[in-house]
Amino acid sequence: VQLVESGGGSVQVGGSLRLSCATSRATYENTCMGWFRQPPGKEREPVASIYTGKSYTYYVDSVVGRFTVSRDKAENTVYLQMDNLKTEDTGTYYCATSRRYIFNWNRASEYEYWGQGTQVTVS
Description:
Layout: E1 4-6, E2 9-11, E3 17-22, H1 25-28, E4 32-38, E5 45-51, E6 56-59, E7 67-72, E8 77-82, E9 91-97, E10 113-114, E11 118-122
């Protein structure tokens, strides 16, 4: 299973970025695709997720109203649109998934496969 992230970069406070996570169709269908981030010097934390079958989405409180997770079925790609970025959003962002059903989207231990990470810096 391969997850390929892209879209990170440096942006000013209040700016926007869109992250992408591309995978194969076999991986993409009827699964949970999660986004996590790891701020400098801190542990990895959940950000958002989408269950690709019915597009159920979940967000951590700190990003509600600013981040939007979506999917493109034709492209087997999940996106994380990040608006009104804050300095505390700085970190390495990862997408993740599993072949098994994920019961707790915000629990990193439930995800089997991880992307390589993409850096987001907000200053």
